[in-house]
Design a protein that fits this description.
With about 170 residues, the protein is α+β, with helices and mostly antiparallel strands. Helices cover about 40% and strands about 25% of the residues. The strands form two sheets. A four-stranded antiparallel β-sheet has the order 3-6-4-5. Strands 1-2 form a two-stranded antiparallel sheet. Strand 1 and strand 2 form a beta hairpin. Helix 2 packs across helix 3 and helix 4 runs antiparallel to helix 5. The longest helix is centred in the N-terminal third of the chain and has 14 residues. The chain is elongated. The N and C termini lie far apart (about 45 Å).
């Protein structure tokens, strides 16, 4: 087994465990020394996993997150207002998607979770790096928005509705 495979399995084992997983247990399970596990944990952390060391073992610190997809419609001039309305209430605009009748579904990752990231995104648009994806579907598009709770997503939905951005959907149009 390669070190990369071992580290993937370690992450999964820690994720799946209801109790902290000791370094000794991991070392025994993978036939390596405790020091190798310590090095693996350092590499796993460097890869972006928030592994916490406790006196009883390793745990994965995960932030609870929920997401919802909103169908929206607005002009280019309202784009910044839409993004700020979402991030101001604690949402993260994970992506933008369109459903084109000829080209099918197209999606771009955004990761806009603050006014600063909104400003950076808007500056890229203004500099002509690209035009908003919504422009090829008459301003209709979807955003997958993540947040810490369903209540936050409900507030975001209400705010989008209040501003006239939210498109009423039926099960067939989602």
């Amino acid at each position: 087994m390669t070190g990369t495979d071992r580290r993937k399995q370690i992450v999964q084992q820690i994720k799946d465990s209801q109790v902290p997983v000791s370094g000794t247990k991991l070392a025994s399970a993978y036939g390596v020394s405790r020091q190798v596990i310590v090095q693996d944990i350092a590499l796993i952390r460097a890869a972006g996993y928030d592994i916490i060391s406790t006196n009883r073992g390793y745990i994965l610190n995960t932030v609870k997150s929920v997401s919802r997809t909103f169908k929206v419609h607005h002009t280019d001039e309202q784009l910044e207002e839409e993004l700020n309305a979402i991030v101001d209430l604690g949402g993260c605009v994970e992506n933008v998607m369109i459903h084109h009748r000829v080209y099918g579904t197209m999606e771009a990752e955004l990761g806009v979770n603050s006014r600063r990231k909104t400003a950076e995104f808007m500056e890229d648009i203004r500099r002509g790096k690209s035009s908003p994806l919504k422009n090829i579907t008459s301003n209709y598009h979807y955003h997958r928005v993540s947040a810490d709770s369903e209540e936050t997503l409900d507030m975001i939905e209400e705010e989008l509705k209040k501003r006239g951005f939210l498109v009423a959907t039926t099960p067939e149009t989602v």
